[in-house]
Amino acid sequence: MTSLHLRGIIHLFYVDENRISQEDSILLPKGYTNNTLVISAILFLLYGYDFSEYSEEIKKEIKNAKKIAIREYIKNKQNSYAESYKALDDKLKSIAGSIDGISVEELSNQLTKLENKLQESMDKRQNILIQIKDLNSVLYELEVLSSRYDALKTQYVSDIKRLTLILEGEQIHKELSEECHDENCPFCDQPIEYKGISSYKETVNNELLRLIKQANDLEKTIKEVVEDKSHLRKQISQLRVKKDEINSKISFNLSPLINDIKDTISQITEYEKIDSQLQSLQKIVEDWNDDLIELEKEDRTKTLEFLPKSYFDDSTIRVINNLLNKIL
User: Fold this and answer.
1) pTM over 0.70
2) Around 295, how many Cα atoms within 13 Å sit in the side-chain half-sphere?
3) DSSP tag of 27
4) Which residues are 184's β-sheet partners?
5) How far apart are the first and last CA of the chain?
6) What are the sequence ranges of the domains in the chain?
7) Is the CB of residue 285 less than 8 Å from the CB of residue 89?
8) What confidence tens digit (pLDDT) does each residue in 20-53 have?
9) Which of 79, 96, 160, 304 stands 20 to 30 A from 9 (CA)?
């Protein structure tokens, strides 16, 4: 479109007196070939028409080339999107069979219950591990105590044997002394005087009895410790069985179910995502089809013909003639 400039309409503001008698319109400049521009300017000044609905007609070759390029671009995109659509549609169908009739809300409720059970099982297992640790600590203390008792028992046995040997030696010494009571010393040939040692024997005997009693008491204590250790080992074994049962429940029951539900929820989410993508692709393809239809319509649309003189009706011409007559 040509722009409106002052030099194109300056002649409208005065009339050359030499042109009064000419047959041609005095509104059109003399020797000016582009009368369409002048007429359009007059219409703009009178009525404000800017004729924006008319655009420069693109050369036919360029226009056809652009249309062909647009068609090829749209068709290539449609083919590319058709492949993506088919791949997504196949994936959607494969997922649909495994999640048919399942709601995310229902699965979420099941998942919450299973996760609560899993947490309870893990808490129980943790408590069992704490109990096993405490019992192992007590068992270790009993093992240390048992080792000390064994050492003490060995000492008692050694002391009892030593005192027993002393008593046996004293008995032998007594018997020998009685046999040699009336004999003289082989060195000095004097009678051998025998002195009794009953008080010494009695002391050793009392000490021996005391050690035997302590050894018997220690034996009872050792037996109790052995029973306690056996009871602790049994408790630890039972707790380990419970722990293994809980581990088995977690590994082979709860965890697989939780993972399956999470996978199903992920599949449903993916299904919804793919379905949304398919709808978007379908909308894009529909828009492109509409663009192709509009493009075909443009081919069949008749080019607008710009005829500014047609805007001058009889009433407008009469008004202009009256104004010119007054000026003349």
Assistant:
1) no
2) 18
3) T
4) 191
5) 34
6) 1-56+303-328, 101-264
7) no
8) 666 666 666 666 556 777 777 777 776 666 666 5
9) 304
